[in-house]
Write a structure and sequence with these properties.
about 300 residues; alpha/beta; Rossmann fold; nine-stranded mixed beta sheet; 13 helices; about 45% helix
Length: about 300
């Protein structure tokens, strides 16, 4: 089944529209939709069901009444969103489609849709996530860029979150090596967060990479804290391993770490035997990962190459 919106196969386009319409219903989330699909026998059966039938299932799941008119309103919004996506030249990927990343199945709560600007084929290639603090030190920032470059030179796609600091540096490192990089967004696919990285986002697309997120185009949508947490889990879901540069004990980077651990992914983390670095609270989260044995330390020049060889 073709999974793109740019040249949609009817089944893929119909499923994307159905999923968006269902998610617009109050109280219906990803888990509810997955249970509905399982009860009907799969994604194709879900997409081919009538609004009345889908509302019956939603009513049974949530123990509150839904009328077909409620779903029709959601489907109208889905049509608008998919129209905006087509105008962007974007694509929507659906479960069981040929470009749907198989690693997402290992997430505790995988997305139902992925919206893509750029080359969606990047998502089918081996990838490693490079993540870290938005406010790293000069050493950490330089390492993030070098890690991105080395991963790309190794032949893997660099996945990161387009955030300020380590994420942006990792994307730049991949571009330095003329490699492919995927920016996972915490916002609708027609927005860029942070806006300071609008130019970087365009460079990623122009360089053969992709912007990816699970939120449909919506220029009026607000980005909230939980969107960043959901973005972080996707970085792990798209990767075969996780590289942590620098992060503090309460850094959002640890959301990606926790997702990677639940998936059983290999994790490596920068380690520097320098007193000021070891005493810096901004590196405490990464140090704890190494000291507890949860991450492979990257302390010497050859450590990254050795870890990359093991992950591949």
């Amino acid at each position: 089944m073709d999974a793109t919106c740019a040249s949609p196969h009817p089944a893929a386009a119909g499923l994307a529209r159905c999923l968006l319409g269902l998610l617009a219903l109050p109280g219906i989330g990803r888990g509810s939709v997955r249970r509905m699909a399982a009860g009907l026998g799969g994604w194709a059966a879900l997409a081919s069901s009538s609004p009345a039938r889908l509302c019956e299932l939603a009513t049974a799941l949530r123990r509150r009444p839904f009328a077909a008119a409620d779903l029709e309103q959601g489907l109208a919004g889905a049509d608008q969103a998919l129209g905006r996506l087509a105008a962007l030249g974007g694509q929507v990927l659906v479960p069981d489609g040929p470009l749907w990343p198989p690693g997402l199945a290992r997430l505790a709560d995988p997305p139902l849709l992925l919206f893509v600007r750029g080359d969606a084929a990047c998502l089918a290639r081996p990838a490693l996530a490079v993540v870290g603090s938005r406010t790293p030190g000069a050493y950490g920032l330089a390492c993030a860029r070098r890690f991105g470059q080395r991963v790309a030179e190794h032949g893997a796609v660099v996945v990161s979150g387009l955030a300020l600091g380590c994420d942006g540096a990792a994307h730049l490192g991949a571009l330095d090596a003329a490699g492919c990089t995927i920016a996972v967004l915490p916002c609708p696919i027609d927005q860029v967060v942070p806006p300071q990285h609008q130019a970087l986002a365009e460079r990623i697309v122009a360089g053969g990479g992709a912007l990816v997120g699970e939120y449909a185009p919506d220029p009026a949508a607000l980005v909230e804290k939980h969107h960043f947490i959901e973005r972080d889990r996707l970085q792990a879901g798209l990767a075969r391993g996780l590289l942590v540069v620098e992060c503090g004990a309460g850094d959002g980077t640890l959301h990606a770490v926790h997702a990677a651990e639940r998936m059983g992914l290999p994790i490596a983390c920068l380690r520097r035997d320098q007193p000021a670095w070891l005493a810096d609270p901004a590196t405490a989260g990464g140090r704890e990962l190494v000291d507890s044995g949860r991450a492979t330390p990257l302390a010497q020049a050859d450590d990254l190459a050795a870890w990359l060889a093991q992950v591949r």
